Amino acid sequence: MSQSSLPEGLHRDTLAVRAAAERSQYGENSEALYLTSGYVQPSAQSSADRFAGDEDGFTYGRYGNPTVASFEQRLAAMEGAPACISTASGMSAILMMCMGLLKAGDHVICSHSMFGSTIKLIGTDLAKFGVESTFVSQTDTAAWKAAVKPNTRLLFAETPTNPLTDVCDIQALADIAHNAGALLAVDNCFATPVLQRPMAMGADIVMHSGTKYLDGQGRVMAGALCASEELVTKTFLPVLKSSGMTLAPFNAWVVLKGLETLELRMQAQSAKALELARWLSGHGMVNKVFYPGLASHAQHELAMAQQSGLGGAVLSFEVKASGADQARARAFHVLDSLKVLSLCTNLGDTKTLCTHPASTSHGRLTEDQRQTAGVTQGLVRVAVGLEHPQDVQADIDRGLSTIA
């Protein structure tokens, strides 16, 4: 749908508050929320042309909405992408991508340290329909290349990963994918377009869970795919129309407004996360801290190059313990001792959220899958919000300092 006529060359933080669909005849300054499931058509012929895709215009709520279009245009502008299509959640965006690109007999390569639900969807659910998958080390570029088969159609990377913040070389994976005649998709949920723009490094598709940082306050669920105009209109949109993975207009409006403060939030939360990571690194009851902003992180230099010099707002730490049972008990003790921070599996909120990945986000995986991904029973993930750093440290230390 038509986009407001903005001049070329605007900066990302300007696009975050200005890119949207044209204002209505009422001239509203804040983008309007359109709550409607249907649209009155000017004529029977226009209706036919619009449903056929030969004329621009909204036809039915499952196919499109002006508020949803504003969100899509704004996110595409911030990612530097030609087009964007939104969905009801991040996982539905991944499903749309796979349904649009893959068929029985096709092959996908992913990292074995991706988000647990992604591993389950691609490795188990899609396998029932004949889609093959290979999971490799996130950071071993040679392993990605070695996994390529004649039927490989997609490489799907999440960087940084959830929850261990492993970082992959986007440009290197793009080269591998394109040399094999495949596409590279990147889950940009942790970094957001504020920290990295994967399409500028060769990615063909950028996936977002708008539920996280794009919203920023834990209010609604949303997902999106940024890609070429052809992929969006000819590959993904038909799946949306058939499947009904539609983003609700209210949710789109909430995330649209969230994008306006994304730059400020990511800068501030990344700074607070770095401070917390440094403090945890010196704690006597912490075995290891996983955070790209630390020089001790295995891919620190790559992360700083890809992520605009920032480590992001998510980190994980492993409590000291001997054996899985003790590690789980100690991690639970830290979480149960919280009085200020939230024990919550979401991330991207202005409130700091803590969780135990092995029993939540990666709980549906087998123990072997969790071990391969490095998700131990003593691992605690922290999505840092906007509280004062000393209050965050004191709340976590409440548990760490009282481990029996």
Describe it for me?
- By secondary structure, this protein is α/β, with parallel strands linked by helices.
- The chain has two domains: 250 residues, Type I PLP-dependent aspartate aminotransferase-like (Major domain) (Aspartate Aminotransferase, domain 2); 139 residues, Aspartate Aminotransferase, domain 1 (Alpha-Beta Complex), CATH 3.90.1150.10.
- Helix content is 39%, strand content 14%.
- It contains 15 helices and twelve strands.
- A seven-stranded mixed sheet has the order 1-7-6-5-4-2-3, with helices on both faces. Strands 8-9-12-11-10 form a five-stranded mixed sheet.
- Helix 7 links the parallel strand 4 and strand 5.
- Helix 3 runs parallel beside helix 10 and helix 4 packs parallel to helix 5.
- It is globular.
- The relative contact order is 0.12.
- The model has no long low-confidence stretch (mean pLDDT 96).
